[in-house]
């Protein structure tokens, strides 16, 4: 498929942020043609490519060859793979590599990898020379539909995940859909949870389309490209309306409050639960809780659960292997994530499929009772 | 004087940056009354105070006492003094201290110190939770009139000074003019070079006023407050017109291209040359070079030199103790600071006192010949 699809023009999603606007190109074969897209948009002829040891053997060479062919002088830095790389320990050599490569005003830093590489590299680009140009080449579905849109960058701290970083928008995102064929089914599914999320936030027709067409999305080809483009557009629209997360952007956290609590409860052990799986369970819980609060029909919760289960995602807390801490401990994790004010929490709830909203007066004790019911013991 | 002056209302300079606008208060006794000013403007009741071992013994206790009295819970972190503190090594514990203090949306990070503490702390505040509120209490004249206005923050890299950082505007600046009485005369003079700079950029009347009143400015009292307020206003005006340094803001670099080259040539050894002294010599050189290029009268260069010499600042390269490298080496340092394009440099030149402008076509070989003349051997 790669060869034939090289001729197809990629889909373009524009992220509209005034003088920080940028394009997301989505399509097959984009890594091999990356330099052409870059050279057509940026004047600089020096780049620093940051990637990890999993991605490098697959895609670094074709990317570097493409850059060289267009007369772009590039250096590369290969980091260890995994969440631990999002730390000051690795941020420092990335910054020094960028400065050492003399990346200047019209040059750029390129992140080639998943969310970890994107977040870390974007942060380094955001602080090197108080802001350097930045190109994302996301290599996971999650990174293509989520972290590569919106400009959030950062690293983890002993005090929590993503607590240190900046908002730094990329100048260009190249989402090569061919790379998704090398993802494990589990990793693809985890990214798919975020795709489904956009339907559940405010696109009921997209969710219905996914219910019908998810197999085609998983198989690759046009349906997959379409699903990624709609997801990027959905996130781009929210981000354009609320770049710094004061209001509407919070909707992107649908399923994430419960999801983060479950990730914390499993000590971020990816063997037990990865982020997208936590979000899948969290979205089901958010719909069930909304039904319990008489905001939405229980049928909607059932519909969400049925679809996510069909694609192979976990949908219940006891789908997670191993023992979970008791409900009160999960509640502590939620309270740490979201501040509790006068016994009330801010939560993303829903009035039905595609009708999510920010609820800022959710009684903490109702959440606890709900968790106790869903996870007795 | 402190006691009597406590009753005087501080002068206020407003830095106009849309929703990032803030006030600079200038006057005596502001550290002791800091908490009142803070509590009147910010809702948060948690603060983290970052300072250094030189400043802490003088001002940390009164500041902490003032905060406590207003019901503000504050932690403090005391760092080593000196330029070496502007490094990742010290940035990390500052970030962790901020996160550990649970500084949230309405709380703030306070920098109590000179330029090093301000730049480092501002950077940490800019990246902790992707941007935390930030209050500057600058304790040197240089910091009061220069680094505390404009939002540039950062640390040094082995590749150069200030190469890693963010633009992060403070929410409030408290310039307590009493603290200047504890500066060494040399440190005060170095800060004064930047005060004079504002006159030379575009305020000929201010420069003339300084020529007449500099002794009163050095002595303290109203003239000093006035000079600081005019300086802050001057910088605020430039920054408001050009927050991200694309055009007009470059004027603030008057004297800095030569100055930086001299700082580099003396290996940033503060015993030989401190920043403001480099700027003083640099401003004289910029006026002399402008005269040589027939842009300005040589009388203006003489007037600048006479004034800076009168206050006790160095004005010539051979005022610097020790041996300087030859002119070509200085030229290399200039070329590294500013890019040379087709043999041309961008430089801040002048048509006379208070008539500076950005010249982007200065022949590099003319600069070299000028340096050879001024510094033979």
TrEMBL record, chains A, B:
* Domain 3-dehydroquinate synthase C-terminal intervals: 191-340
Using the UniProt record, give the first listed, main subcellular location.
cytoplasm
Q: Which GO terms describe its molecular function?
A: 3-dehydroquinate synthase activity; metal ion binding; nucleotide binding
Identify which cofactors the protein needs according to its UniProt entry. Answer: NAD(+); Co(2+); Zn(2+)
List residues binding Zn(2+): 194, 256, 275
- One Pfam entry for this protein is DHQ_synthase
Q: How is the cofactor bound?
A: Binds 1 divalent metal cation per subunit. Can use either Co(2+) or Zn(2+).
List the EC numbers from the record: 4.2.3.4
Q: What Gene3D superfamilies does its record include? A: 3.40.50.1970, Dehydroquinate synthase-like - alpha domain
**Its Gene Ontology biological processes?**
amino acid biosynthetic process; aromatic amino acid family biosynthetic process; chorismate biosynthetic process
Q: Which UniProt keywords apply?
A: Amino-acid biosynthesis, Aromatic amino acid biosynthesis, Cobalt, Cytoplasm, Lyase, Metal-binding, NAD, Nucleotide-binding, Zinc
Per UniProt, residues of the 3-dehydroquinate synthase N-terminal domain are 77-189
Any one cellular component term from GO for this entry? cytoplasm
User: Binding residues for NAD(+), per the UniProt record?
Assistant: 115-119, 139-140, 152, 161
**Could you tell me what reaction this enzyme catalyses?**
7-phospho-2-dehydro-3-deoxy-D-arabino-heptonate = 3-dehydroquinate + phosphate
Query: Per its UniProt record, what PANTHER family does this chain match?
Result: 3-DEHYDROQUINATE SYNTHASE, 3-DEHYDROQUINATE SYNTHASE, CHLOROPLASTIC
Outline what the protein does: Catalyzes the conversion of 3-deoxy-D-arabino-heptulosonate 7-phosphate (DAHP) to dehydroquinate (DHQ).
What protein name applies here?
A: 3-dehydroquinate synthase
